[in-house]
Amino acid sequence: MNHPDKHFVDYLCNGLQYGFDTMVKYDNIKTMECRNNLSARSQKDTVADLINKELLNGFVYGPFEKLPFDDYRVSPLGVAEGKYSFKKRLILDLSAPHNDTNVSINDLIDKDLCSMTYVKIDDAIRLITNYGKWTKLYGKIPPPRSTCREAATQLPECLRSNVVLNETVKQLWTHAVANTTRSLYNIGFSHFVRFLLLNGITYNSHDLPLISEDVLIYFIAHCFKVLKLKHTTIKIYLCGIRHAYLKSGYHNPLETPHGEFLPRLTLILKSVKRIQGSQTRTRLPITFPILQEICLRMRKGVFGKYIDCLIETTCIVAFFAFLRCGEFTVMNVDKFDPLTSLCISDIILKTDYAILRLKESKTDPFRKGIDIKLFKIDNSICPFLALKRFLSIRHSEFGIGFPSDPLFITVNRKL
After folding, report:
1. Is 144 exposed, middle or buried (0-12, 13-18, 19+ CB in 10 A)?
2. 231-247 and 179-198 are packed helices; what angle lies between their axes, rounded to 10 degrees?
3. For residue 152, what pLDDT band results from cuts at 50, 70 and 90?
4. Which PANTHER family does its entry note (predicted)?
5. How many angstroms separate the CA atoms of 97 and 57, rounded?
6. Burial of 310 (0-12, 13-18, 19+ CB in 10 A)
7. Is the pLDDT of residue 193 over 80?
8. Which of 32, 44, 233, 329 has a Cα at 20 to 30 A from 183?
9. Cα three-residue angle 58-59-63, rounded to 5 degrees
């Protein structure tokens, strides 16, 4: 509160507490309700959830039984997704309806009172250069590049404003790598961003900073010494950095302009690996005798009828179908997707065998899907009988449910 302009301080505090004047000036504005953008119309559930959050936080009022205004304008809603967090948020298009017949909200704002200008990097460089050589900041200006960084990302206005193609490109980028890989990439890149900010390197999600081989080497040292990460994890984090830069239209930061791996970076990674040594974990598979012991113990009763049956069935099915953990489980409830995860409809019971429909797997990156047959066998450990018994108990516990419901869930409906 030591700001010399007390009027400005009062204006700012009052605006933050009670809201600022929008500076919209109008005499006769035509009542109009604009249609929501395609991104909002195609994600109705997401829009409803985001609006409910706004209501709960007190950022908006409603719903109203009677409109509180005689004249009003409804601008279209849209849904935007974070470039790296993939978190969705609402946007309001105040430039609608984009025609000459009806003015937009932005058109009604006095440009003399409310305007925004951008200071370009060229302006900053010109200002620093004017101070002359041997000044403190002059030497920090990077030498000129042979190629323009923005050339690869420049798009015509018609493409930038094409909602359908923009959403399609985002979707394609989302499926460029597997979900688990993308999560690891996001974690790695978030650590890198934090490292940049802690060391005074400016970061802007819309304009990634140019990074040198030395910055990457020091980031490896940070991961090794401060974060105590293994060599394999550091490599994944570097891949996450590469993915983020490629997605934003930049050159691969792990390679030279000639497409070769950065030599010093490679040596530093080898050094980390040599210091940590090779640590091969002993793999202990579940053999059939071990599976028998698990099933017999569950049948004696441990957690309750349903949970015991659930554990026994998942173990038997995973054993006979050679399933990986990620093929019949998810990390948490939010990660469940009926298009890829195991659902009730993915189990079909025949006379003497069951069909398990695996929609995606590590060896099936293009999601063609595969049908796995689990035959009835003359043994107490039978995948067909285990599934049949589990489905019966599941129906009695939760009802028939929908075909898209998860197959394996706990009593509290957690996956």
Report:
1. exposed
2. 90
3. very low
4. P CELL-TYPE AGGLUTINATION PROTEIN MAP4-LIKE-RELATED, PHAGE_INTEGRASE DOMAIN-CONTAINING PROTEIN
5. 29
6. buried
7. yes
8. 44
9. 75
In contact, 414 and 333? CB cutoff 8 Å = yes
Name which of 308, 389, 285 is nearest 347 in CA terms: 389
Rounded to whole angstroms, the Cα distance separating 295 from 380 reads 9
Q: How high is the mean pLDDT of the chain?
A: 82
336 to each of 179, 200, 260, 342, 402, how far by Cα in Å?
11, 39, 40, 9, 15
Does residue 142 register a pLDDT over 70? no
* Amino acid, res. 96: A
Gap between the Cα atoms of 274 and 296, Å rounded: 46
Going through 15-97 in order, the beta strands assigned E by DSSP cover 32-33, 73-74, 77-81, 88-92
Q: What are the angstrom distances between the C-alpha of 244 and each of 187, 206, 325? A: 11, 11, 28
Whether the CB-CB separation of 121 and 129 falls below 8 Å is answered with no
pLDDT in tens, 299-348: 998 898 889 999 999 999 999 988 888 888 887 777 788 888 888 888 88
Q: What are 205's two structure tokens?
A: 């999600």
CA atoms of 212 and 81, how far apart (whole Å): 29
Handedness of CA 12, 14, 18, 19 (dihedral sign): negative
As beta bridge partners, residue 91 has 78
For the record, the structure tokens of 278 come out as 């090779």
Question: Does residue 131 come out as left (phi exceeding 0), alpha (psi in the -120 to 50 range) or beta?
Answer: alpha
Alpha-helix runs per DSSP H in 277-304 = 288-300
Write the Ramachandran bin of 202: left for phi over 0, alpha for psi from -120 to 50, otherwise beta.
beta
**Which pTM does this prediction carry?**
0.47
In terms of average pLDDT, the best of 7-11, 80-84, 106-110, 320-324 is 320-324
